[in-house]
Each structure stands twice: as structure tokens, then as C-alpha cells.
């Protein structure tokens, strides 16, 4: 196994070598790419109104795709219609959740790698929809791929890694964003491009790319195995390259600088242990 599953819950807190082994493995696997459109941001008080599921692999390309509008039996806010273009008139004649989700389950429960752009969002909504039906849906950490996280590692200095902006950046031939079918296709095209890069480039090149990633203070602290306050002081003293996140203005650090300090720390500890022998 690439990494202990519990540890792998926080991908950004893993070392580059561990991440490289994981992505090498994922690049050889078959994917189930998913996107949902919803009535709000939180699964416990919002519902899915559209889902698209696409099965593909680098070896065989796209194998299958299914998309469904779902009658959520709740009001669709006007701002959601403004973002997605999905109107009440479109979804209310559609089948309800209790018909659609059991139909989707065989596609979602395969051994394929569950893939989405901002995976935590789609995964949480899907788990909640199944929970409402009394069905447990779970994918282990090593069978999940978030293309946002992978794009942060391979496209570290792009100003935005939102799906609409990545579609523009790569000139993907897909229709309007914020519809499940189009976004699922775009997510697959992004995964295909990035995972092909994982397959084609050598370890040294990829590790250098990974090193350019900006990681959050809490992830740096996990790598260094200390509290956030201590990690921030350590990294500032070591003059590790840093910046503030664009939205929340929180400190972020270049991965390579954090890992360099980690390995120096490990070397010192090993040297101290050897001197005691």
C-alpha cells in the first residue's frame, strides 16, 4: 500500500515521495469521475439536482457516461438557477432521489478511483444522499482523487485552479460550466492531462514540480510534527518562501522549503541517536 490510509486523509500533509507513489498508482487505475449540481453549499441542508458519472482510464479513454436531473422536492434558489441554468421547470418532472441514487450505485461502488474537482464537496453530497436512503456509501482514501489538489501540485503558480479557469487555460472543448455533464467531462480531461504527465515524466522532474506547491500552515505543521504556532516560527526563521492565500489571507509555504527543513531535522535526530550508541 502506498501510504497508511488514515494518514492519507490529509494529502497535502504527506511528503512528496509518498504522493508521487500514490499518483503513479492512480495514473494506472480506472476512474469514476463525478460532478453534482446542488441547491446549496452544505449537504445536510441542500440537495443534489443533477449528477453526472463518467468512467474512463488513460489506457482506454472514456468508456461510459450517465447524467441525470433529479427532482429534489425542495425549492431551487434563484441564485442557483443563475449559476447553473437549472430551473424548477427542468427538474420537477424528473425522477426523485429514491429512484436515481439506487440506479447510480453500481457505477459509484466499483473499485475505480472516485474522482472529482474539489472532491470533498461532491463526495460529501453523495454520501449524504445515500445516507438519507439508508445506504452507506464510502470510498477509502487511496481510492479517491481530487483534481484540485493534483492541479495545485503540478500547476502551482496559476492564479486560479477553478474548473472554469482551467477549461480556459487548457482550451478544453466542453460546453458551459456548472452543468454536471460538462463539468464531469472537463474534470476527466484535466485528470487525463495531469495523470499523463505523472506517467510520462521522471521522478526527479515530478518531485521538483511537487516542491513548487503552496501548502497551508496546518499541513506544514503536520509534516514537521509540531503545533502551527511552532511551525510558523520555524519556517519564518528558516526563511522558507511564503505568501498569503488569495481569499483568506492565511500563510502558505513552498512545499520544497518545508520538506527540506523536515529532512534536515530528521538528519540531526539520526545523528544524535548515532552519537548515543
Automatic annotation (TrEMBL):
Domain of life (superkingdom): Bacteria
Organism this protein belongs to: Phormidesmis priestleyi
Entry protein name: 3'-5' exonuclease
Keywords: Exonuclease, Hydrolase, Nuclease
Gene3D superfamilies xref list: Ribonuclease H-like superfamily/Ribonuclease H
Pfam families: RNase_T
Single Gene Ontology MF annotation: nucleic acid binding
Domain spans labelled Exonuclease: 30-200
PANTHER family linked to this entry: DNA POLYMERASE III SUBUNIT EPSILON, PROTEIN NEN2
Classification via CDD domains: DEDDh (cd06127)
Amino acid at each position: 500500500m502506498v501510504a497508511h490510509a488514515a494518514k492519507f486523509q490529509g494529502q497535502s500533509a504527506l511528503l512528496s515521495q509518498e504522493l508521487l507513489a500514490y499518483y503513479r498508482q492512480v495514473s494506472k487505475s480506472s476512474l469514476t469521475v463525478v460532478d453534482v449540481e446542488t441547491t446549496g453549499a452544505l449537504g445536510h441542508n441542500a440537495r443534489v439536482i443533477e449528477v453526472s458519472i463518467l468512467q474512463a482510464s488513460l489506457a482506454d479513454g472514456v468508456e461510459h457516461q450517465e447524467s441525470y436531473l433529479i427532482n429534489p422536492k425542495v425549492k431551487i434558489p434563484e441564485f442557483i438557477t443563475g449559476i447553473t441554468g437549472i430551473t424548477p421547470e427542468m427538474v420537477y418532472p424528473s425522477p426523485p432521489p429514491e429512484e436515481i441514487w439506487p440506479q447510480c450505485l453500481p457505477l459509484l461502488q466499483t473499485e475505480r478511483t472516485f474522482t472529482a474537482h474539489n472532491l470533498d464537496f461532491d463526495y460529501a453530497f453523495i454520501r449524504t444522499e445515500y445516507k438519507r436512503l439508508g445506504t452507506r456509501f464510502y470510498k477509502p482514501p487511496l481510492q479517491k482523487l481530487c483534481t484540485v489538489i493534483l492541479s495545485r501540485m503540478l500547476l502551482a503558480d496559476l492564479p486560479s485552479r477553478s474548473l472554469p479557469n482551467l477549461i480556459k487555460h487548457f482550451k478544453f472543448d466542453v460546453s458551459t460550466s456548472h452543468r454536471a455533464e460538462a463539468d464531469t467531462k472537463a474534470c476527466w480531461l484535466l485528470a487525463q492531462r495531469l495523470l499523463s504527465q505523472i506517467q510520462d515524466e521522471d521522478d526527479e522532474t515530478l518531485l521538483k514540480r511537487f516542491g513548487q506547491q503552496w501548502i497551508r500552515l496546518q499541513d506544514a505543521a503536520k509534516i514537521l510534527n509540531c503545533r502551527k504556532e511552532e511551525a510558523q516560527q520555524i519556517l519564518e526563521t528558516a526563511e522558507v518562501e511564503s505568501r498569503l492565500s488569495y481569499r483568506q489571507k492565511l500563510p502558505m509555504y513552498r512545499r520544497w522549503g518545508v520538506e527540506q527543513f523536515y529532512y534536515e531535522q530528521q538528519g540531526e535526530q539520526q545523528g544524535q541517536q548515532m552519537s548515543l550508541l
